[in-house]
Design brief:
Layout (H helix, E strand, L loop, with lengths): L16 H7 L7 E2 L10 H16 L1 H23 L6 E4 L2 H10 L9 E5 L4 H14 L2 E5 L7 H9 L7 E5 L11 H11 L3 E4 L19 E5 L11 E5 L19 H4 L9 H16 L2 H23 L13 E5 L8 H15 L1 E2 L1 E5 L2 E7 L6 H14 L5
Parallel strand pairs: 1-10, 3-4, 3-5, 5-6, 6-7
Antiparallel strand pairs: 2-8, 7-8, 9-12, 11-12
Helix pairs in contact: 2-3, 2-9, 3-9, 4-5, 10-12
Bound molecules: pyridoxal-5'-phosphate.
């Protein structure tokens, strides 16, 4: 499979509910429909992680003397799982760290040149760009890309600005708008223009079988394992091209002069038990359910959930070009959740008053509920969410 995945992979293969419940103990109090932020860690992986932390806590010195090989094994297993050469993949805490590291490679040569990104960018990554601009004298350029833009329009908007830029920063799957961007085409375009590209694939692992296939030429790609793959939090990858193997982690460690991947394996005495436990989650889900079946279920369920909630709220399904495989937008009434602060207030109300963890996003002054569907969700979950939204009946404040 290529990074330029089709909009929907849904074939609606039902997952065995008994197996699903054995992986994720049913939670009758809180409903999770925001795996775009965090996936639920399988119960057995959580137990495995806690056993590791007990070992670490009881003999920290012994843990840190011997854990390096286990971290390396985990890294190799995760790299294999996403289909990447392990020598090009370093472990990082999260996609925010991965993107910051990519931006840190810019230096004085960036002065006066553009760092290009779109208005679909994740807010914290924009802050990282702004930091880089303040440090180097580069100029942040935020391009407007309409929600319904197709791949050709996205490529054209970026191509028009690319000449002489210091870096192109682009999402593989956008956060606020659940949109797939044509990163393969953009990676080729930026290579041809001699402009480094950093791809934010925070959502890609788990949703796309081989998230870096077709973008091997990209200078930097980062992706989270703690979202869709359901590993313990703080587990992500930074993948670099062959000519970027000199990239350094955020924190200088004793392993500074090791080859790229090993340089990232330990950052001082950061725990890393989560990294050691991470392959447990992805392999467990593969063995019990199969990731292909999980992806298919998530995609079909996200479609059905969006139809259900949009129809309950009497709103039209928005056009987003190629939509993310298991995330969908439901528009809120005009004037509701039009900025990140207001979106956060509504998200908290839905959680506090109805016990539902979901995402509320905004783009270009329009608020959305961003639906996510994972293996452990059923259509009933979205009926409960739409009942909550109808009960809250949010209006412009
Ligand atoms: C597109 C995108 N980039 C970056 C991030 C940051 O991920 P993290 O908080 O794990 O660093 C997110 C988180 O949701 C995201 O959606």
């Amino acid at each position: 499979m290529n990074a330029e995945v089709p909009a929907s992979q849904a074939t609606d293969i039902p997952l065995d509910p008994t197996v699903v419940d054995s992986l994720w103990a049913p939670d009758h109090k809180v409903l999770q429909v925001n795996h775009g932020s965090f996936g639920r860690v399988p119960t057995e992986t959580s137990a495995f992680l806690h056993a590791l932390i007990e070992v670490e806590d009881s003999n920290p010195q012994g843990w840190f003397r011997t854990v390096r090989d286990e971290i390396a094994d985990a890294r190799v297993a995760l790299a294999e799982w996403i289909g990447v050469d392990e020598h090009r993949m370093g472990l990082v805490q999260n996609a925010s760290a991965g993107m910051t590291i990519a931006l840190n490679t810019l230096g004085p040569e960036a002065r006066g040149r553009k760092i290009i990104f779109t208005d679909h960018i994740y807010g914290a990554v924009q802050y990282a760009i702004e930091r880089t601009a303040a440090r180097t004298g580069a100029v942040p350029v935020r391009l407007s890309v309409p929600l319904d833009a197709d791949d050709d329009q996205v490529v054209a908007a970026i191509a028009a600005e690319l000449d002489g830029a210091a870096m192109l920063v682009v999402d593989q799957i956008t956060s606020a708008t659940a949109k797939l961007l044509p990163v393969g085409r953009l990676a080729r375009l930026s290579r041809d223009a001699g402009v480094p590209i950093a791809i934010d694939g925070a959502h890609a692992p788990g949703l796309i079988e081989a998230p870096v296939a077709g973008i091997e030429e990209a200078d930097f790609w980062t992706g989270n394992f703690h979202k869709w793959p359901c590993t313990p939090r703080g587990t992500a990858a930074l993948v670099v091209s062959e000519d970027r193997l000199d990239t350094v982690p955020l924190v200088a460690s004793w392993y500074e002069h090791e080859p790229f991947a090993r340089r990232f394996d330990q950052q001082g005495t950061a725990s890393c038990a989560n990294w050691v436990a991470a392959p447990h989650a992805v392999h467990l889900i593969e063995q019990r359910l199969g990731w292909a079946a999980v992806r298919s279920h998530m995609s079909a369920l996200a479609d059905a959930a969006q139809q259900l909630v949009c129809s309950a709220l009497d709103v039209a399904v928005p056009e987003v070009g190629r939509t993310a495989l298991s995330m969908r937008l439901v528009p809120l009434p005009a004037g509701v959740a039009t900025d990140p602060l207001a979106a956060g207030v509504l998200r908290d109300r839905i959680a506090d008053e109805h016990g539902i963890e979901t995402a509320v996003t905004c783009f270009a002054g329009q608020g959305y509920v961003r639906l996510s569907a994972h293996a452990y969700n059923t259509l009933d979950d979205y009926q409960r969410l739409s009942d909550a939204l109808v009960a809250i009946s949010p209006t412009a404040s």
